[in-house]
From TrEMBL:
Its main location: membrane. A divalent metal cation binds at residues 31, 79. The chain crosses the membrane at residues 33-53, 59-78, 99-118. ATP binds at residues 12, 19, 31, 79, 88-90, 97-98. Pfam families: DAGK_prokar (PF01219). Substrate binds at residues 12, 58, 72, 101. It catalyses: a 1,2-diacyl-sn-glycerol + ATP = a 1,2-diacyl-sn-glycero-3-phosphate + ADP + H(+). This is Diacylglycerol kinase. It is found in: Cell inner membrane. Its cofactor is Mg(2+). The lineage of its organism: Bacteria, Pseudomonadati, Pseudomonadota, Gammaproteobacteria, Pseudomonadales. GO terms for molecular function: ATP binding; ATP-dependent diacylglycerol kinase activity; metal ion binding. Mn(2+), Zn(2+), Cd(2+) and Co(2+) support activity to lesser extents. Keywords: ATP-binding, Cell inner membrane, Cell membrane, Kinase, Lipid biosynthesis, Lipid metabolism, Magnesium, Membrane, Metal-binding, Nucleotide-binding, Phospholipid biosynthesis, Phospholipid metabolism, Transferase, Transmembrane, Transmembrane helix. It comes from Pseudomonas frederiksbergensis.
Length: 120
């Protein structure tokens, strides 16, 4: 069992919230791609609210934008873990990082497709 486990109830929830804020802060400070996606969300999400679309379409427009942030956080976490293990070049490390990048490409493509389908 991990020595970092053990908190329960409200204390666990407060700790988890703090860790989440720490992760968002680290991503914003250390990851240019995350900052770019935040900027994209700052632009697209308000636009989604002024478009003449249904509530479900609006939710989809916003959800795909938020999904790209989630994918970038996971991609950055994978990259950090790989770099923590070793900075040495290794085919498996490259594969892991490339797959994280590919996941982000799919998420960004999904933004383009969903916005295009809904707006056309």
């Amino acid at each position: 069992m991990s020595p970092f486990k053990g908190q329960t109830g409200l204390k666990r929830i407060l700790n988890a919230g703090g860790y989440s804020l720490d992760g968002l802060r680290a991503a914003f400070i250390g990851e240019a791609a995350f900052r770019q996606l935040v900027l994209l969300n700052v632009i697209l999400i308000p636009v989604a609210f002024v478009l003449n679309v249904s509530h479900v379409e609006r939710a989809l427009l916003i959800a795909v934008c938020m999904l790209a942030l989630i994918v970038e956080l996971l991609n950055s976490a994978v990259e950090a873990a790989i770099d923590r293990i070793s900075l040495e070049r290794h085919p498996l490390s490259k594969n892991a990082k490339d797959m994280g990048s590919a996941a982000q490409l799919v998420a960004l493509s999904m933004i383009a497709m969903v916005w295009t389908v809904i707006l056309i």
